[in-house]
Amino acid sequence: MCGIVGMVNGHPVAADLVAALGRLEYRGYDSAGVALAGPGLPVHRILGRATDLVPVLEAESPQGHAGIGHTRWATHGRAELRNAHPHRHGGVAVVHNGIIENHDVLRRQLREKGHHFASDTDSEVIPHLMSEALAQGCSPVEALLETCRVLKGAYAIAAVTAAEPDRLLVARMGSPLVVARGQGVAATASDPAALAGMAHEYAALAEGEIAELTGEGIHFHPIRIQERRRGERRQQPRPVTVERRGQGRRAEQRSWQLIADPTAARADGRIFTHHTRREIAEQPEALAATDAALRGLALAPAVVACDRFTVIACGSSLFAGAVARDAIERAAGVTVDLEVASEYRDRSAPPRGVALLISQSGETADTIAAMARFRADGLPAIGMVNVRESAIGRAAEMVWPVTAGQEIGVAATKSFTSQLLALMRFGIALGEARGTGDAAYRVALAHALDAAPGICAEAEKSEPIARILAQRIAGEGEALFIGRGWGAALAQEGALKLKELSYLRAQGYPAGELKHGPIAVIREGSPVIVCTPGDAGQAKVLANASAVAARGARVVALTDASGAEAASGTAAETITLPGDALTAPFAQAVFMQLLAYHTALALGHDVDRPRNLAKSVTVE
Ligand code: M6R
Asked: Whole-model pTM?
């Protein structure tokens, strides 16, 4: 949560900072602000979006050549101006992403020394600690080192000072942060995509590392948490690594990667108003890229030997695990348990087998905490992440990658279907390696996955139907999604998508459970979307659909060609999507994404930045 950015350049950086912040708004958008290094250390903050900073900065026309910026998702302290970043104190301005766990203790200590705080945030202790160190004779980089040594928790920090107009300082522990460089520019951001067009290449800042950024290069220092003995002189930190473009590198080699522009026009020439819609259209490429990255990937012996897996995830990633569970169990002849990460982390039952952690961002705090339980018992964890350089990507014993490309819209779309494909391919690879499971099913499933990118492209053509249904749901103000087997899990994903984008009350339920209570909500005209593929389970789910239709619900069946005839006997409306019962999860997922997207548009909501949400949830 929260996005941070910083830049040093040979010319004023304020406009670039705001543009970069705009691309980080998926991380939070309660408030935004920038600070510019040098005399006066000007800070500009607003409640609302980064773009709202533009008129403020136009009026002020700040000239600083080094600066920092922040877009906030409120955790400590309400979404109020005084809690907006940057926080400034005594010649230091700081932006922070993460949580300082010992901020209460630090505040108390600082208050005893006469410090006053202007915000409720945990972050504000950072400029106070740095200014204390400056007052004791530290240089700005020493002050940041000293500060990091007392901070507990997770942080990505960027700081500028009044004393150094051409220098930016950054530090990282547990929260994502990259450094980047280009012609005469050095920059930092929570996500490299924010810097597209401003810097050329980026590298991850390592855990427990500080960097000094100037127009000439980037100097790296480790944060060594060590006590100085009384009276021992503080030493000027010497960089362990100096990296400059086009020059030889000393010490460690860092992996630099080109910064891609996620908003460039698509190869097919289509342009989209929203990231979310664009990402729905990108599913064929995302699936193909994920498939290509998985081909030939071998499973570790400890994974092959295991017959019990625990899928741990949150939100859409959890539903992806739930949709694919039966496919893995059948393809590999193993048992797959499902655990909600935020609940699992506090369970007392000992972990068993291998953990399969699914996370688009790889930064979800609850999933990371659940992983810790497996690691504490010496059990392996497989990370299924879309961001390889994420906390889970780095910590897991094995990564079974999702390669969907950057997802900016807060709603998971292409990452969800790419996770489905990766999970099903995992089941096939596991069954083959173990020699267990249903071999004929594996062959059929592999063919279905080969076809999945094309099925997603075809399913996108159902958009006009999704748009009409969306108008109706927007008018009704609610929707119920039901299914059986994987359809029950997909129903939950469809409901989550509708809820988060349209803010309507939507529920996803196993169809067989309706009669145990939820059927009471059905009234005349209630929209009920039924996931009903033309497979052996169709008769049962249609029987459940009939029960709601008999009580006045308007049943809309999502099916494929083989299930259309049976569905139309029960449903008021049958939507026949491309493919068959094996590819149906992909086709139905795309339809539900379009449905949620158009319902949100019909209600006038901000599709890419739905209220109260952030893309990566790095708090518990
Ligand atoms: O990055 P993760 O996959 O771990 O995120 C998990 C959930 O926060 C995420 O799937 C969330 O539910 C999405 N906004 C759903 O569209």
From this structure: 0.76
